[in-house]
Amino acid sequence: MKVLRLAALLLILFSSTLFPNLCFAEDERSDGYFTVYEEKTGRKIFATARVVSVGDQYLDAQNDLYEIVRVEGDKAYAVFKEKVDLEKALGEIQASDHQSVFAEAGKRTVAIYHTHSDESYVPTDGKASIPYNGGIFKVGQALKKALEEKGINVIHSDRSHDPHDAAAYERSRRTAMELLKQNPDAIIDVHRDAVPAEEYSGEVNGEPLAKVQLVVGRQNPQMKTINNFAWQIKAVADKKYPGLIKGIFYGKGNYNQDLFPRTILVEAGTYTNYRQSAEKGVKILADVIATTLYGEDHQKKATPGSGSTTQIRGEGGGTLKSILGIVTIGAAGLIGYLLISTGGWKELTSKVGRFMSTEFANFLGNARKGKREGDDENSRDQN
Amino acid sequence: MPVGVTLLLVLAVLIYFGLLQRILDRMRLSDKMALAFIGAMAVGTFLPNIPLGSGLSINIGGGLIPIGLAVYLIATADEREEKIRAIVASLLTGLAVYAGGRLLPSEPETMMVDPLIVFSIFAGLIAYIFGRSRRGAFVAGVMGILISDIIYAVGLAGQPAGTAIGGAGVFDAAIISGVIGVALCELVGETREKLQGGTEKADKEGDER
Q1: Exposed/middle/buried for B130, CB within 10 Å: 0-12, 13-18, 19+?
Q2: Shortest distance, CA B79 to any CA of chain A (angstroms)
Q3: Minimal CA–CA distance to A222: which of A252, A191, A254, A247?
Q4: pLDDT, tens digit, for every residue of B100-121?
Q5: Between A160, A178, A253, which is nearest B109 by CB?
Q6: How far apart are CA B19 and CA A58, in angstroms?
């Protein structure tokens, strides 16, 4: 029996090493990246150092949504799904009255942290990865400064989450939670990508800079809400600073976005960009974030005592869908579990009936006592 | 925060706490004790972390209380063998989580499920194989993540990496691992029982409560 257990353990450890791209565990993926092409035309859509898999989606700068259908080596193929009308998708533009509900300027808070604290920019920092203190912190600093200039209080975590391995997000989860205790209106995880520089090279109002990409995790019950936040940021950026946001990548993973509805992962340029151009990009992003959270005229002094942020457009609908999703999955899971743990439907219903009558006996006791006869029938109907 | 979003958070938390309560309930803690532990974890999450030196600190709700609970569960285990198994399972889980952290790819999108869940399933499986009990699985899940944190902190991975043990409180990998460990125990145990033709109904009714 003991031998069997040991064999099982070895099997688990062995199978864990069979996950693809094992050798990338330690290093920055600067030696390879994925290029995604359109399935029919062969036209290049985007490149990313994030690992792409079938089912991932990408919303490009023109708001065309693609879904990846095939991955072969470093190449992936995607099909066009739809043109997303961000303004329409987010609902009617609300009257500016609505947007002028502000808190005192000092109460506005945004939190910034870096899961991959080693990420750096080769032309400026000399290396792609500087353990524990990458150039990415300076980009975070630039974002902080720009937000502070708009009267927003910024908490910038200087904690490193090295080594750059699979447990980095688990460690940064703790940082995110610590930041959340300080009640921020939004929380931003700033990264940089690892693709050739031209992928991120762009300009806004004639000024050259490194573009910004947003990343939304698909393995998250709150994905709809996070996606809405990402759409809102892009909609504001497209209007005020066209060219700033390269796109939104929807990847497998969670990126700690389950902790808070206004969380976003930002890729500020790529490792072959000059760090200064990434800093320029996030400085403009600061204005976009301020506008998204606090409305068009966020610079004005606010009326004291009112709510801290405006209702972000479309937030309600996304939330409702998420709630329904969670309830459905929760119920399906519960019924599935009960079906396995009991004999079958008949035993299940009688068990649930018995559970209801014992568990809620304290406060429903008297009411139920009178109709104990019909109990089982009732619970059977409900299920 | 808008009402809808608040509601979503409340709902997620309620479901999670409900699950947590059921899990603790399964370990011969009384209903009230289970609730008290959850309350303490929830409150402890929001208390400041206690510094332990060399970059390490510990969160009360996500570290101190679950560790205390794990120690209590080991101490009150019926047999000597069960105690030893729980401790061995904890050590193995710690090593496996650490090894997994180093070996698995660094970007979550490479894996079928998020690393957070992968580690928890790791912990749950090993805990189930060696712990052979719900208590063992919970202890190994919680202590396994803790042990892997300590391995990182003493610098086996290069430079020491400081972290807040259980820093994400009730939502930390430590507690999620414990919960998934027990859930796996339930699921695997019950499914196996089913395949074997099941036990007498009377037995199962016994552990329903």
Answers
A1: buried
A2: 18
A3: A254
A4: 887 776 666 655 667 777 777 7
A5: A253
A6: 35
ipTM of this predicted complex? Answer: 0.74
Domain range annotation of chain B: 3-208
CATH code of the region A97-319: 3.40.630.40
Task: Tell me the residue length of chain B.
Answer: 209
The reply to whether residue A312 touches residue B103, judged by beta carbons under 8 angstroms, is no
Tell me the backbone φ, ψ of residue A206, rounded to 5 degrees.
80, -5
Q: In chain A, which segments carry CATH 3.40.630.40?
A: 97-319
Higher pLDDT, B197 or A92: B197
Q: Any CB–CB contact under 8 A between A350 and chain B? A: no
Best of B114, B122, B129, B146 to substitute, by most chain A Cβ atoms within 10 angstroms, is B114
- Residue A309 pLDDT exceeds 80: no
Residue in this structure with the two tokens 């859930």, named with its chain if needed: B183
Q: Is B125–A12 a contact, with Cβ atoms under 8 angstroms apart?
A: yes
**Low pLDDT (below 50) residues in chain B:** 1, 202, 204-209
Nearest-by-CA chain A residue for B202: A342
Predicted TM-score (pTM) of this structure: 0.76
Task: Tell me the mean pLDDT in the region A31-42.
Answer: 89
